[in-house]
Amino acid sequence: MDFKIYTTISLLLVMFTCANAFSQNRNSFPQEKGPYITVRGSVIDIETLEPIPRVNIEITGGDYTTTGADGEFRIRARIDDELVIRSADFETRYYTIKDNQRIRVEVQSLSNEEDIFEEEEIQGNSQQSFEGFLQIARDEYKKDVSKGIDHIASALEVKGISESERATAYELLADINTYGKQYDLAISNYKSSLKSVYDIAVDIKLAKAYFNNKNYQESISLYQSLLQKTISFEQNLEVIEGLGDSYKMTKEYEKAIEQYKKAERITSDSSIVSIATRLNTKIAECYDGMGNSQKAISSYNKALDLSNQESSESAARSKVNTADYYNRTQQFDEEIKLRKEVLEDIDNVVTDSISNDDVLTSQKQNYKIASAYANQRKFEEAIPFFEKSINEAADKNDLVIEKDATRRLSELHRDQGNFDKAAESYERYKSLVDEEYQRKEQEVYKAVRLGKDIAEKQARIRSLEKDRELNEKKYQLAFKEQELRETSDRNQQLIIGSLIVLAISLLITAFAMYRSSKRQKYANNLLALKGLRSQMNPHFIFNALNSVNSFIAINDERTANKYLSDFSSLMRAVLENSEEDFIPLSSEIELIKKYTMLEHFRFKDKFDYTLTVDENLKVDEFKIPPMLLQPYVENAVWHGMRYKEEKGLLHIHFSQKDKDTAVITVTDDGVGRERSKAMKTDNQKKQKSKGMGNIKKRIAILNEMYGDRVDVAITDVFENGEGTKVTLTLKKN
């Protein structure tokens, strides 16, 4: 019998048996009291959607517990018991237990207004103090990244700060980005700090940010340049190891080993055992990657010998890495021995600050010990470690390990023929899967909100920096103009006397007024462009987020994650170009490719599309306003082909008319402009779309500022009014 068919039949049989056993066990309890069940839930602030920790959870006359840092709780109860949710921050809530379904308690905090007042009071007391804002940011950002960034923006708004202070602010901002794992933003802000004041330590942080953002070549180049500079012993060691890490990630293992051994020689001179342990572990990983098992195990053993010289977190991590190697090579007895030593190290040297994502947690190590026993089919030895892993994961709210260990435990009971216990574990596993899904759903929603909030604050900081640079240029220009006027006045007074000086002064004044008028007009155009861009990007973001929301609404988590990943990539490119009047045509082509792909991803049943670029078109020689094509493509999809009964076709073509002119066409075979207007609902007709109007205004302003460089014509494709063709003509500078 085929293995897959056999496995499927076995699984169905076990599920049926488990469900039957579970039903029998449930009915065997006395009906007057009812069986105990585990009630899971969370307490959420309804306004901020943030979890509330340390809330008192009590069953009247029964068990008591509190919510964890993530607002989650679990408590033992019976059906019809009264659950009391009590805290000084909100009114007490009461809930009657009806079943073992997850409970979500939404409350309104009584302290929100007080918190706002206290925050305003802090800002008021520190509004004149640059260092005061920075200190608040340092204290707050690990609790709330968004607030930390906001306080740095306030610090940068303080008048009269020095270049050194500005560098410090941008360094802290980049540190916050690194803490939030927004490495692309960290790179930008470390560069801003170095632009104000150069600092070796900040340059090393920039190299690490490149590494964390997977810009390995940039990381290697910067680390190599740092080695040519005069740096301290600690910095030298950090740079050499960082260079080795970058080589390892690019699979240049021999170069990586060379750097690690160089760092090892430095540490051996200083007897830094913990660092030497870590380096030998990395050397072993490189040999393992090269397929040299003999040298790999030799380096792992050396790391283990070093780790035995001291009890440290670094030594424990070395043992974990070696145990992972034993697991990959199926040396399960050696793996189990090492992991049991790691458990002792965790009890002795690992702090409570280790997160559940870290490998140095007792629940993970117990899970892996149990898995190693299970791989040897030593089920009796494996089961206690799975149970211990489950209990520890539950205490530490590590839902992933608790779920996986529960599933494996159910499978072991099944393989032993103990279907009652298998059924119990399986039911618990199903509950944990539901809980994990709800938690991920919350995390996605919070991530979208946090990303939008941080993007707005980063935009505010960029605006502050641009305003500062503009003011400095204005000051320098005014100073030079003043010097010029004074020199001219003195020379003319000596040559032709007071009357000619007066006349020339009038002419200079008139000329200055004319120049001022032109500059004012130019500044007004810049402000208008900035305003139009600020309307366009939220318009686009709103439509795209609606797409994410629709996938989440139909519980299509995988599609939502895929769409959100592609959307974040597009948004990063849009935000990078959002302050530019013109970008290379090649960049706009990549943007419209990503956008059209996302629209097609959502409306696959409505249209197909082609995007072609004439091979004769020199895309790097032409520039175009960013996101100029997106509204036309959006109109083609939403107002042309979306109303069409059969599947439509969208064609985007880039060509070169002559050496100075490029032509872009967006053609669809949709219902046409007139029919699209007629098919709108009354509610849609009341809503005025700003997208096309903003495009026309942008083109008009840019043509005025830079000469007539962009022209747009819209025509029908067919004589019956169906189909729409947008022809955009683009000229060089």
Tell me what you see in this structure.
- This protein is an alpha+beta fold and 733 residues long.
- It contains 24 helices and 14 strands.
- The protein has helices spanning 3-27, 112-126, 130-140, 145-157, 163-179, 183-196, 200-212, 216-227, 233-249, 253-270, 273-290, 293-307, 313-328, 332-348, 362-375, 379-395, 399-415, 419-553, 557-577, 585-602, 630-641, 673-678, 682-686, 691-706, and strands at 37-45, 56-59, 64-66, 72-77, 82-87, 90-96, 103-107, 583-584, 607-613, 623-624, 648-658, 661-668, 710-716, 724-731.
- The strands form four sheets. A five-stranded mixed β-sheet has the order 9-11-12-14-13. A four-stranded antiparallel β-sheet has the order 3-2-5-6, with no helix packed on it.
- A hairpin with a 2-residue loop joins strand 11 (648-658) and strand 12 (661-668).
- The longest helix is centred in the middle third of the chain and has 135 residues, at 419-553.
- The protein is globular, with a radius of gyration of 33 Å.
- The protein starts with a helix and ends with a strand.
- The model is unreliable at 1-32 and 112-127 (pLDDT under 50).
